[in-house]
Amino acid sequence: MFWRLFLTYLLFVAATALVVGVLHIPAAVAFIVAVALPIAYVLARRFTHQLADLTEGARRMAEGDLTHDLPTTGRPEVATLARSLNAMTARISASLAQVERDRQQLRTILSGMVEGVVAFDNNLQILFANDRAAQLLEFVPEQVVGSKLWELTRQRAVQEVAEKALKGQGPYRQELDWKGPEDRSLAVYVSRLPGPNSPGAVMVLHDVTDLRRLENLRQDFVANVSHELKTPLANIKSSVEVLQDGAADDPNSLKMFLGEIGDQAERLEQLIKDLLSLARIESGAIAMEFEAVSVEEAVHTCLDRHRTRAEAKGQTLNGVALGDSPPDLAVWVDEEGLAQILDNLVDNAIKYTPHGGRITVRWRVLSQQVLLEVEDTGIGIPDADLPRVFERFYRVDKARSRELGGTGLGLAIVKHLVQTMRGSVMVASEVTKGTVFRVALPRAAPV
Q1: Measured between alpha carbons, how far is 408 from 231 in angstroms, rounded to an integer?
Q2: Percent of the chain scored above 90 by pLDDT?
Q3: CATH superfamily of 113-207
Q4: Which residue ranges make up each domain of the chain?
Q5: What is the CA radius of gyration of the chain?
Q6: For the chain, first and last CA: distance in Å?
Q7: Helix, strand or coil, per DSSP, at residue 42
Q8: Closest to 426 measured CA to CA, from 387, 385, 394, 399
């Protein structure tokens, strides 16, 4: 458009010059040059100014400034080009904003995962690592990008897994165990990044420490149950064999071995009952009916059930209210569950307290809870064994426990019942002086 106007103008000037040129040619040439040059200069300057604006805008866009808008005034051709560039910039800006939102969303998702995620290239240089990976491998996540994998963790096994995965084609899996402030087991999965020329791999770390601990507990539990069942069964079998070999003809031997069979059968029955009870409590299958239960009544009822056994050993049983405990003090529990807790604790105290000892059950108000204490003057528990007394089948003195008829499940049942009723249980002991179990249970609101 600009050049058409300029040429039209030149033709007009030339026609005028011809008229003048008929009279004088040098004068006509001078006239054309004198008139055309200033106007051409003005028009060219306006055009080059608009091109300079376009050039500056393009430079700023190339440097990443997508907020700059080019002016759309001036010549139509230049204005159309400026509008096209502005529209292109807007689309690029929107696309980059969407990419950033997607990146932040992906980072948030990866940061919230319970698994650790580490991406690295073929030279083991870190491209990304989430917070969970930093916890498992013990590094600072903000300082890892660009670092080498071996610079992040002291565990050589992690680097070896990454190297093996990079050498192979398919996913690679390995489980790692290492010692440290906390023993840890990790399941490590490494997959190559997709593409014909894979740029690296992604490592996923899953902490299986608790899973392995539970697996070990399960194995120990099965072994302990097998052992506990085998002992009375072996005694029953040997007694039957002796009777079959002729001891049944002797009335005294018959009575003795039948008594042994009866005792071992009763032990088996109690063991099975405790196993079923513990399984129901742990699975939540046991139906509990929470209600206000009188503490004083529950304690004295329990002591009455065990008084005959205690008196046979010359032991004294006492129930004592401490402090300003009101006579109508009650706990919000399942009545049968509370009875089972007290029975197990008092039964243990009687078993491990020598002849002439004393067992005392005390209770007092503790803020919004009621504290029940079962104290004995028995043989006590060594400090090294105290943390494990609530484990299933754990016994401080295995031979003595079996001699006294314990199943090794009583305190485990106590712990799970107390926790189910939103309480807590603790133990303190001193060898040869006695043991005290403290059970805190929710206090029932006064009626």
Answers
A1: 14
A2: 18
A3: PAS domain (3.30.450.20)
A4: 2-103, 113-207, 212-283, 290-442
A5: 45
A6: 99
A7: helix
A8: 387
d(CA 86, CA 66): 9
Q: Two tokens at 339?
A: 């009875």
pTM: 0.54
What's the CA gap between 168 and 41, in Å, rounded? 70
- 310-355 tens-digit pLDDT: 999 999 999 998 877 888 899 999 998 899 999 999 988 998 899 9
**Topology (CATH) of 212-283:** Helix Hairpins (1.10.287)
What is the b/e burial string over 156-168, where b = at least 16 CB atoms within 10 angstroms of the residue's CB? eebbebbeebbee
| pLDDT exceeds cutoff 60 at 15 | no
pLDDT band for position 22 (cuts 50, 70, 90): very low
Q: What is the DSSP string of 183-220?
A: -EEEEEEEEEPSSTT--EEEEEEEE-HHHHHHHHHHHH
pLDDT in tens, 421-438: 999 999 999 888 899 999
Single-letter code of the amino acid located at 311 = E
Q: Would you say domain 290-442 falls under CATH 3.30.565.10?
A: yes
